[in-house]
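Issue: ligand-bound run for 1-deoxynojirimycin - logging full I/O for the record.

Environment: standard queue, default settings, no custom constraints.

Inputs:
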Amino acid sequence: MVSTPPSQASTSQYEVTDAQEKVEALVTEIKPETDIDLEFLYTRDIEFRQETIYFIVVDRFYDGDPDNSFGPNPELYDPERQDWGKYWGGDLQGIIDKLDYLKNMGVTALWLTPLFEQIEALFVEQAAIHGYWTKDFKRINPRFIGKDEEPSLNKTQHTRNTVFDRLIDELHKRNMKLVLDIVCNHSNPDISGTKGELYDDGVKIVDFNNDENHWYHHYGEVTDWENEWQVQNCELSGLATFNENNPDYRNYIKSAIKQWLDRGVDALRIDTVKHMPIWFWQEFNADIQNHKPDVFIFGEWIFSDPRNERSVEFANESGMTILDFGLCVAIREALAHGAPAGFHQIQDVLDLDHHYYRATELITFIDNHDMPRFQSLNPDPEMLRVAIALIMTSRGIPCIYYGTEQYLHNDTNGGNDPYNRPMMEEWNIDTPIYRDIRLLSGLRRLNPAVSMGSHWQKYLTPDIYCYVRRYRDSVVFVAMNRGASVTLDVVDTELPDGEHTDVLSRRKFEVKEGKLYNLELDSRDVIVLSHVGERIKAQTIVRAQLNSVQTQPGEIVAVIGDCPELGNWDIAKAYRLEYINTNTWFGEIPFNESAGKLISYKYVLMREGNSPLRENLVCRRWVIASEGTVKWRDKWASGRES
Ligand code: NOJ
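Outputs:
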């Protein structure tokens, strides 16, 4: 770690020859009064692709602290758990109590519904059990924390060792992460004449009905969902919509979120991102990531789809990735509704992965708190296993809705909200899905082909889907069957020859010349075979990703530069990247000799029978961190032809 002295930089500092020291000197000059942790600027970048996320509606998980259940307004609590609009008692202590259950299932990150203090009243017979009607972004809902931790006793942000801090500690002790759900678009709706009352750690600062300082938009409800201006400026179901043009609002929301990040939050899930302009998110993400560079951020663009240009633009340019509604809809159609096109519908979505810069970082899911659970559409537990195996092994970061592993569902009114949020009641660690998630989460961490690799369809009919994930010499082969038992004559697997064991059932399979012959697939069968190749090791690993280079079959992307690791500008020694899709090339570049040094590099397209096409720029420059893992995210800077 390099930190600069708080003193003014002296001229002699410019005489140093080492490139690293020059950078330090420069930073010292720019911010002479500040202690800058240089390492922080370029070494830490979170890699979230190996995670398995579990999404919890906090109130409906587990009541670990009965003392807080009545909350500020006891009328809103139903101890009998009959009234679906009221609180049922789940809290943060309940989550701590169940961490071993979750860890043992292979869950590595918890996304919790928003934790902030909510309005304490019923709106359309609903209390804010979901957490999307915030009153104070700097305080936690008293129903989720200890009674002696109620905000009225102390300033929340000045109080430590609360149940919130203990949850973070307990998660981190288990090498698990916390994803905080935040809403920047709106506060709370109109309840008995009060609307949009907002507090700053207990101090009232804004009121929608007396909005002298223009913290809110006042344009009424969205009436035309095709009109982008309306979607961004008008109200969603009567929720008071923030005016992002007001810098005071922006400072408030950013400072609130930074405080929670300082308490140890690892990632953010952001609500309703489509309802605010992209410039707001670009600024927000830049500020948040300057504050905490290793935070992972994903947004909810409702019904995002690779065929929807606006949601694709958002995923590529906002600075955050998104929840993959496109794949979710296709999986539900194919596996829950039994659509005739079956797996073709899923492949059609994956075929459009090249629209995204970060397809391997999309958050994949089969249901959530805003739609009927998968089993309310199709109760077959074996089909649920197929769907879960699919998101655990295909590209993207899987997110499991709480209770899926216990087959939790209530089908009243088709299982729609609020019946998709039942109380968690079973904690059986022997269910087939609990076991599958544990095994496949282990595979995600072990085999980089699952978390980072390309996806190759090998056998596709409406009922049968075989695919290969590949990264360098690591390979995973998956076969699944939604229909009746069948035997496939031959399927290509890309696995090394020899015996392979199914990760899920421990059945043995013999691969010859890379193929499986007479592969028997029972109804609802899933087979997962894995081969882990050599992993890249080095003092510093750069995870380099290049987008917007539309490669043709046979072409290869490589990196050349002024250091030995990148061939010292010798194109024959350039470092080759891996093909992920026609828009994305990716590779882990090992740096030892040049770790900690300033280097220059550019990308080059190798074309058979044609001269290499180098990027048309002087070069890119970067200080390689002295250790750890960093990411480069670059866009191809050249036309196709030289
Ligand atoms: C999306 C959330 O997922 C949903 O549950 C909520 O009601 C709306 N955004 C409004 O915040």
